[in-house]
Amino acid sequence: MATSIAETSLTIEGVSIVVDCGFGRTSRFDPKSGLSRLETIQITKDAADQRAGRAGRLGPGICYRMWSKATHERLADHRVPEIMEADLASLVLDMAKWGILDIQQLTWLSPPPQAALAQASDTLHQLDALENGKITALGVRMHELPCHPRIAHMLLMAQNEGILELATDIAPLMEERDPLGAEAGIDINERIIALRRYRQLAGSNPRFARIEKIARQYRQMFDIEAINDPVDPYETGLLLANAYPERIAFARPGNNAQFQLSNGRYAMAGHRDDLAHEPWLAIANLDARDGMGKIFLASPLNPQDLAPMVKEQEVITWDTKKGGLIASKDLRIGSIVLRSTPLPTPDGTQLLDAISEAIKKEGEQLLNFDEEFIQWQKRVMSLRKWRPQEGWPDMATHSLLMTNKMWLGPYLHNIKKPEDLRKINLTEVLQNNLGWEQQQSLNQLAPGKIEVPSGSRISLQYQRNGEAPVLAVRLQEVFGMEETPRINAGQTPVLMHLLSPGFKPVQITSDLKSFWDTAYFEVKKELKRRYPKHEWPDDPRQAQAISGVKKRK
C-alpha cells in the first residue's frame, strides 16, 4: 500500500505490486485552532508517479491506481511546497535560536511567504518568545519542547502556576478534532471532564483513546502523572489565554453572545450556549471569518488573572466618524480597552503619523480632489507618459496617498478634524513640490488653457493615460484657425470638440484643416437651419472669429 513514506530513499526488497488509494496525509495550518494538523488530501501527479515507481525499484512491477484516467488528468501536476501553506511559528523560533534575524541570510528552494513570516513573528512576540526579533530566555525554554510554540508557552506557564497536569490534558484537545462535537456546546472543560472520566473508567472510545495517547506523551515530557480531579474552568481559561493571547474575548454590550477579541476581531457563541453570557472568555477554536466569527471551543476567564497582560498605552488614532483625531491614555489588553482617559499633550510625531495613516486609507474622501486639482494631476501624468526621460513625478492618486507624509507633512501640523483636511489646496501644495523649472515647463508643455482666434482662453480637458486632451470650443470661435492646436512642444495635437452656439457638439476632430475642407459644409447646412440668425461663412478660414453672439444683419 502506497503512502508518502515511499518518497524517502528507503527500498524494500520483494515489492512488485503497489496499490495506490490516491490520498495522502499532510500537515496544514488550521486557522480555527491556530495550530497545524494532519489532513487527508488528494495526491498530485508527481506523487502518483513517485509511488508507482516503488513497484519497479528492483525489477518489473505493477501499480494499481484506485481512480480513473479522467480523474488522473484533473490532478494537479505538482505539490505545493509545504512551506507555502504551513504555520511558520516554529520555523521563525528556530531561526531566532540560531541567531538569524534576516531571512535573506539563508538560501531557500521555496522562500517562505512574507505575510506568513510576519504573522509568525507577531505570534511569537505576543507569547514573549521574541523581543525585538531576538529570542528571549522564555523563548529558549519554549524551543526545547517538541511542540508548537503556543502549546510550549502554555505548558511552561502551567508549570509556574502548579497546574501542569491540566495543561497536558488541554494540549491534545487543542491539537485534535473535538471528541464531543458541536452539540456539546463550546465549553472545552466539558471535554476535559469527559477525558478524565474516560481514564477513570478505562473506556474504549477511539477519539478519547487518541487524545489520551497524546496527553500521556506530554506528561512524559515533564515526568508527571495524570490526575482526574474536578476541573476549575478559570484555570483552563488562564492557560488558554497564555496559548492564545490574541483570543482573549470580552462580551460586547447588549448581552447578545457577541465578543470582542484582543486582536480587534469579533466572534459570537450560540445564544443558548452555557458560555454565551460570560463576561470574559479565552477562545481555543474559532472560525475567524471576516465580520463576525464563530466560537467552537472556549473557557470562562477571570479578568483578575489577566493583570500581567494589561498594558498602558498612549494611543493616537484618526476616526472620521468621531470627528478626527483622538488622543488617549488607555489600559488595554490588545485591542480591548479597559479604561481610557484623554491625553492632554499628545506627541506631535504620533499625531502626524495618525493623520498620515488615515490619509492612506481614506484620502480620497478626506482630501479635496476638486476638478481644478484633477486637471492639474492629469497634466503632470500626461507629461510623465509623453516625456519619460524628463523625470516627471508620479502624481497618480494611489501613489500620492501612500507617500502623503513626504509632500503633505508640513501642512498637517494644525489638522484636527476632517474639515481641516478639506481646506488644503492640493493643487497649490503639489505645484510647490515641483521645481521652478518643472513648474515653467508644465505651463509651456501642458497648458491649462489655449487662446483661440476669438480671443477667448479655453480650458483643455486632460485625460487619463496621456490621451489627447480635449478642447471643447464653439465653432464660431475658431474661424480663421488653419491648423489643430498642438501642445507638448508641438508633438501632441488636441482633440477638438466643436460646439454649436448652444454648446452642443457638432463635430469631433484632431485635424481641423481636413474638417474645413470637407465636413464643415455639411455641418454648416445643419447649423444654418438650427441657428438662422447667426453668420455661417462660406470660407471659415477667412472669417472673423466670434466670442459672443454676433448675429446676421
Q: How many DSSP H or I helices?
A: 19
How large, in whole angstroms, is the Cα Rg?
A: 36 Å
Structural class: alpha+beta
Give the biggest beta sheet: 5 strands, mixed, barrel
Distance between the termini: 104 Å
The geometry reads as elongated
Beta-strand content: 15-25%
Q: How many independent structural domains?
A: 4
Q: Strand order, main sheet: write it out.
A: 7-8-9-11-10
Strand runs, count: 21
Low-confidence stretches: none
Report the mean per-residue pLDDT as an integer.
Answer: 91
Relative helix content: 25-40%
Layout of secondary structure:
Layout lengths: L16 E4 L2 E8 L4 E8 L2 H9 L8 E4 L3 H6 L14 H9 L16 H13 L3 E2 L2 E2 L1 H8 L4 H13 L2 H12 L12 H14 L4 H17 L10 H11 L4 E4 L6 E4 L4 E3 L11 E8 L4 E9 L10 E9 L4 E10 L2 E7 L5 H19 L4 H16 L10 H6 L1 H5 L9 H5 L3 H8 L2 H10 L3 E3 L5 E5 L8 E5 L11 E2 L4 E2 L1 E5 L5 E5 L2 H6 L2 H11 L23
Parallel strand pairs: 1-4, 9-11, 17-20
Antiparallel strand pairs: 2-3, 5-6, 7-8, 7-10, 8-9, 10-11, 12-13, 13-14, 15-16, 16-17, 18-19, 20-21
Helix pairs in contact: 3-4, 5-6, 6-7, 6-10, 7-8, 7-9, 8-9
Description:
With 553 residues, the chain is α+β, with helices and mostly antiparallel strands. The protein has 4 domains: 76 residues, P-loop containing nucleotide triphosphate hydrolases (Rossmann fold, 3-Layer(aba) Sandwich); 164 residues, no CATH class; 76 residues, no CATH class; 82 residues, no CATH class. The strands form 7 sheets. The chain has a 5-stranded mixed β-barrel. It has a 5-stranded mixed sheet with strand order 15-16-17-20-21, with no helix packed on it. Strands 12-13-14 form a 3-stranded antiparallel sheet. β15 and β16 form a beta hairpin.
